[in-house]
Amino acid sequence: MASVALSEAEKVYIVHGVQEDLRVDGRGCEDYRCVEVETDVVSNTSGSARVKLGHTDILVGVKAEMGTPKLEKPNEGYLEFFVDCSANATPEFEGRGGDDLGTEIANTLYRIFNNKSSVDLKSLCISPREHCWILYVDVLLLECGGNLFDAISIAVKAALFNTRIPKVRVLEDEEGSKDIELSDDPYDCIRLSVENVPCIVTLCKIGYRHVVDATLQEEACSLASLLVSVTSKGVVTCMRKVGKGSLDPESIFEMMEGSSARLAAPLGHFPAAPYQLVTD
Amino acid sequence: MAMEMRLPVPRKPVSESLGRETKKHLVVPGDTITTDTGFMRGHGTYIGEEKLIASVAGPVERVNKLICVKALKTRYNGEVGDIVVGRITEVQQKRWKVETNSRLDSVLLLSSMNLPGGELRRRSAEDELAMRGFLQEGDLISAEVQAVFSDGAVSLHTRSLKYGKLGQGVLVQVPPSLVKRQKTHFHDLPCGASVILGNNGFIWIYPTPEHKEEDAGGFIANLEPVSLADREVISRLRNCIVSLVTQRMLLYDTSILYCYEASLPHQIKDILKPEVMEEIVMETRQRLLEQEG
Q: Which domains does chain B possess?
C-alpha cells in the first residue's frame, strides 16, 4: 500500500484526535469523505465506472465475453477480476512494484463474490456445458489516497450495474450443430441485478478506536484493519484482517456490529439513487 | 454518521476577480506569445519557427525587452531567504536530506543546525554520531534557505531559535505559487492556532504554544494531548486552506483568517463540500476586495 512518512508528533496528534472523535479534516470516526461516482465512462466496454473518494481515484471496466463454463459449475457463467496498480498512482507502483497489491486486491474481490447470492451467475449461462458469459472485471488504480478497498468495491458495483450483456439466441441446425446469434440492436441486452453485490467497509484500528475511510496519514498510524464485505441487507460475505498488529476479539465484534451494520443500508441504496444524502 | 454520494459535476471556471482592469495574457505550452523578434526570451519560452513559443502554462510577464512565462503549477524553486517547511528523508554523514517539494532534495548541513542549549562550537565526531538523535527520517522542520547550488538544489539552515523541529500539528501541501511572499511567514492567528506558510507550499498548522520556550529549536517534542477546542480550530483552518487552494486564491494570513470567519456558520466537515467551499471563498474574496478598496 502506498505510504507516507510521518513524524512521531504528527502520529501522536492523529491518534489523540481519533480518541476524541475529531479527525484531522473535522470528520467523526464513522464519516466517509464525499464520493463521486460516474458510470459509462469507457466506450468500448460492456460497462464501466469511475469512483473518486477524496484523493483515491478508481476506474473499472467490465467486458462480457463468451466462453465455456467451468467444469464444476456447468450451468453458470463466472467473473474474472484483474487489478492494475498503475505507476500514476504513486512512484512505488513503478515496474512490478504494484503487482503484490494488485493480486491482494484481486484475491479479496474473488473472495467477496464467492457465494451464490452476490451475482446471479445462472443468468450468464447461454447453453449448459457449452457456452456462457464470462465477465472480465478490470480495475485500474489511478490515484491512491487511502481506503482503496472501499472505493474499489463501490466502483465494481457501479460497473456491474452499468454492464449491458447482449441477448443471444441459440439456433439448432439439422445436423445438431449449434449456432449463436447475437442480436443486432445495441439496446437489446440484459442487465445484471446488483442488489446483493456487497460493498467493502474497511475499519482501521487507531489507538483504542476504529475509523472508517482512513486517509493515507491515518493508515500510517494504524497497525491493524478489518475488512468487512457486507450487502445492503446486512449479510456479511467476507471478513479479513490486514496489518501486522493484533485485534482483540471483543473489538472485532464491536466493529462488526456497530459500523458495518450501520453502513450496510446507505451503501446498499446506491447505485439506484446516487444523488441522495443518506444519513442514519 | 453520514455517507454522501454524488454524480460528478463539471467544475465552474474560477470567476475573474472583480477589481482587475487588465486581463492577464494566459498561455499554454505550444502557444505563440509573439512573432516580434525584437524580444529576449526568458524562462518558460523558446524560439521555434521564428516565433516565441511558451513551454509552460501561465501568465506572460514582460519587463522591457524580456518576455517570460511564470508557470502556475511547478515545483518549488528555492531563493535565498525563503522560509520552508520540509521533511527529513535521509540522514547522511554530516548532513540531512530534506524533502521540500522541489526538483532535488534540499540539504541541511550539520554545521547549519543549532545545537541544543545554543552553544557555539565546532561540530565534532560525536555530534555526527548523534545526528539521528536530533532529526530522524520523517521529522518535520522549519528552516530558511541559505544558498542555492548551481544545479538548483537548496541548502537550508536553522540558525535561529524560531526554526527547528516541529511538534504536533497538521501539514497541508499546496502549490508553491499560491503562497504569497510576505515579510513574515510565522503567524499567530487570533482564532487560537498558529500557522507557518512555507514558500515551498508546505503549510504547517499547530496549536499556539502557551509560553515561548527557550530550548533551541524545540528538540524536545511536546507529546501531550492537544485540547479539543484547539483541535477544532486547527481542523477548520486546514479545511479553509484546502478550499482556498481549490479556488486558486493566494494564501496569506488575512485571506486565511477571513476564510476561517466565513466558515464559522458551517460544520467543520461540511466545509469540504463543493457548494460550501464556493460560498465561503466567494465571501472571502468580497471581504478582501472591500478591504483593498
A: 26-69 (2.40.50.100)
